[in-house]
Amino acid sequence: MESGLGGADCLLCTSRRSDWKDLKKLVDFDCFAIDRTAAKTLDLYKQLLKDDGEIEKSKDDYNTRQGLISKPLLSSDQHFITITHQYINGVTWILKIIYHLRSSVLNWSERGVIKEQINKARELVLNEIEKATGFRLDKCELTGNSGTSTTGGQGRRFFSFELRKAIVKTVRSNYQKSFEKLLQLYSVILRAVSSTESVDVPKFRQLTVDFSVLIAKEFPWIDYSMTTHSLIFHSAELIFRNNSRGLGEISEDALESTNKDVRNFHLDGFWLELPKKLFEVTKSPQQISPSAGTVEAVNGV
Ligand SMILES: [Zn+2]
Q1: Among 60, 79, 98, where does a domain finish?
Q2: Which residues are paired to 178 by β-bridges?
Q3: 110 shares a domain with 30
Q4: What single DSSP character describes residue 107?
Q5: Which residues pair with 198 in a beta bridge?
Q6: CA of 35 to the centre of ligand 1 (A)
Q7: Would 208 be classed as within a structural domain?
Q8: What's the 62 CA to ligand 1 centre distance in angstroms?
Q9: 252 Cα to the center of ligand 1, angstroms
Q10: Does the pLDDT value for residue 262 go beyond 80?
Q11: pLDDT of residue 187
């Protein structure tokens, strides 16, 4: 790995996977600030380099070694999110959640007999989505190897408001309500990130915190991938650094569906359903650092 960080949980921050579902840390924004830079990683490498050219390693040394396993070759900071990559990985991640909710396998691993259960659920789910919406998702379209515009487009469609009801219906009815929240929040976050509009960063950040709290509380068995972690834990800071603008390139298609989704988001009273406590996070502006910025009207969210 060019970054040298082959053992890292995240290439942007030094937090651990276990932190990502730690409720106390989730409301403390500073726990997930982007704190890795190419210069720091190189410094760390120099510090850990022994005379024999190997890196100093010991058990449970993440705090000191921070996932560094080889010489870093990158000289620039990897502080970005690739939108198409986010859509493709986002669909794969959400589909995995759906298959598990369909088969009531509340466990992220898919070994042995469970794999068969998941495959069965997968077939049912994909057929139902296609039947209800005409939208065909399959492996080939989600590998990301063939034409990125097609796959990005597939992802945008998957997260569109139009398909949401049909997608939510594919999970067992007892999970539908909380899964709908999950899917809606994730979709809105993705749309805001992939837009080019100006974004109210504290408000947007609150959405990402809400999402992480939802996972920690209602879906603790779900694991983030590195890509989905970046979206949820780092996109607010990246947007702030981007002059509080979404990170996408102009695409009429994307903007059009964003507006529709945002309209629905406000109308259906989703905000009101969230526990009051979550909003306390935004009440003291000093907690929003380092991304405290303009509190302007949001266009993107
Ligand atoms: Zn991170």
Answers
A1: 79
A2: none
A3: no
A4: S
A5: 245
A6: 9
A7: yes
A8: 14
A9: 30
A10: no
A11: 97
Q: Does residue 105 share a domain with residue 46?
A: no
**Residues ≥6 apart with Cβ < 8 Å to 46:** none
DSSP state for residue 146 in the 8-state scheme: S
Amino acid in the structure at residue 150: T
Mean pLDDT score of the chain, rounded to an integer? 81
Which residues are near ligand 1, the ion (C-beta closer than 5 Å)? 10, 12-13
> Any alpha helices (H) in the chain, and if so which ranges?
23-26, 38-48, 62-65, 83-102, 113-133, 139-142, 148-158, 161-168, 173-194, 201-218, 226-241, 252-267, 270-273, 280-283
**pLDDT in the model for residue 281:** 42
Same domain, 54 and 23: yes
ipTM of the modeled complex: 1.00
**How far is ligand 1, taken at its centre, from the CA of residue 146, in Å?**
28
14 C-alpha to ligand 1 centroid (Å) = 7
Task: Note whether 110 and 63 are same-domain residues.
Answer: no
Beta bridge partners of 49: 55
Question: How much of the chain exceeds pLDDT 90, in percent?
Answer: 51
Report the number of distinct structural domains present in the chain: 2
Domain with 36, as residue range(s), is 1-79
- Provide the token pair at 243: 């002059």
Burial class (CB in 10 A: 0-12, 13-18, 19+), 193: buried
**Residue 122 and residue 31 share a domain:** no
Tens-digit pLDDT profile for residues 212-240: 999 999 999 999 999 999 999 999 999 99
Residue 295 corresponds to which tokens in the numbers above?
Answer: 């509190």
pLDDT for the residue 201: 95
Gap from CA of 11 to ligand 1 centroid (Å): 6
122 Cα–ligand 1 center, Å:
30
Q: How confident is the model at residue 167 (pLDDT cuts 50, 70, 90)?
A: very high
Question: What is the chain's length?
Answer: 301
Distance 78 CA to ligand 1 centre (A): 11
Give 36 Cα–ligand 1 centroid separation in angstroms. Answer: 9
In a domain, 278, yes or no: yes
How far from each other are the two terminal CA atoms of the chain, in whole angstroms?
A: 35
